[in-house]
Amino acid sequence: MTFNPLRERGIPLDKQLRNWRELNVTPIDPDHADPYTRCRIIAMNGIEVEAVMFSHQMARHCPDTEIKQQLARVRYIEAQQQKAVNWLLPGLASVLETTLAYEQVAVDLTAWVARMEPDPYLQQAYQFGVLEDFDHLYRYANLYEMIEHRKAEKVVDQLTEVMPGRPTIMHHRDPVDNVREPYDRATVDPLSKLHALTIMSAEQQTMNFYMNVGPEYMEPIARRLYQEIGLIEEEHVTHYESLVDPGETWWEMLLNHEYNECYLYHSFMETESDPKVKAIWELHLNMELEHLRLAAEMFNKHDTRDVAEVVSPKLPKPVTFEPNKEYVRDLIATQIDHTTIGTGYVQEAHERFQKFQEQIHGGEQPPSEAVIEENKAKSGEEYRLETEGPHPVERLRLS
Ligand SMILES: [Fe+2]
Ligand SMILES: [Fe+2]
Ligand SMILES: [Fe+2]
Ligand SMILES: [Fe+2]
Q1: What pLDDT is stored for residue 1 in this prediction?
Q2: What's the average model confidence in pLDDT over 341-369?
Q3: What is the pLDDT of residues 72-98, one digit of tens each?
Q4: Which residues have beta carbons under 5 A from ligand 3 (an ion)?
Q5: What whole-number distance in Å separates Cα of residue 53 and Cα of residue 67?
Q6: What separation in Å is there between the alpha carbon of 288 and the centre of ligand 4?
Q7: How much is the pTM?
Q8: Among the listed residues 75, 49, 50, the one whose alpha carbon sits nearest the alpha carbon of residue 62
Q9: Secondary structure percentages of the chain, helix, strand, coil, to 5
Q10: For residue 341, what is the enclosing H or E element?
Q11: What distance in angstroms lies between residue 156's CA and the mean position of ligand 4's atoms?
């Protein structure tokens, strides 16, 4: 059975508003939930935040009151969806536990996208980025053990390994080198557009999350680590957003956003293990089908092309959260010492990279290094979760 989101009928827009009782969702159980259910919630929250912010940006560029009213109507529903989704997270989990889950999303979602991406240049961008978020997970896991006296496997289970990736100290690049080359909207595989939008949105939400929660900590090392990694997420947003063709029209961008929401809700509905959460994915899919229909209507009115030239009538295979351990290990073994230069990649440090490194570190050890040493001193050894054997790079093995 093929699912054509352009043909399926959703819930009429005037039936989509929820009252307080309907918005008051029951959060997942932090101790018994499937870690990948939590990952789907975090990923989908990032998508809804992007839906809201994109619609605001579009409205700010739109002189037509009627179109603005239409955008406002749909955006209010997106805002309710964001609340319903993000409020599935339990207040019982600590901010640091949620942070570990954010990095688990970044690892397993980006790795999956990299595996499925048909375009080699775009694939390289995901492969490059995933090794950095993988290292963030390791740094935060050590902070978690140090200040909460718990082990990250409580959050990530055995699904994602925790060990050094490309060391965080090396992620600080001159901003010029974070800009990639965009795909060409006329020739690119439609799947690539969805991938870029998804990862850009997830990284943007991670950036926003760290910039907001970082200063809530008392412990100086926690405050500092969030600052450091928060700045790298800024680099990641620059990296991923530059993959998107800036020549897309506003109507086209809106269409891509709504289509991607349909794709992801459909994917998560198909793969969800928690029946209560699955019911929300299904409800939201039915709302998004109507958003997509309305976006297509606007596109038809204002763009000269056919909707089918921009988005595919057939949904791609569902985005799946699953372990990517061997894939990530392989990348660590082959791409750990990569950095960027201009819109490309190199294996050695170059002048601009080195100059930036000198400036940002100021001759001191960054928080991402200090956290490992401090945890070693406090807990006896650093925290790792190497389920598939010793680290693939010899110099990064525990002695
Ligand atoms: Fe939405
Ligand atoms: Fe990260
Ligand atoms: Fe990131
Ligand atoms: Fe939507």
Answers
A1: 54
A2: 97
A3: 999 999 999 999 999 999 998 999 999
A4: 106, 133, 203, 233, 236
A5: 16
A6: 5
A7: 0.98
A8: 75
A9: 65, 0, 35
A10: strand 339-341
A11: 29
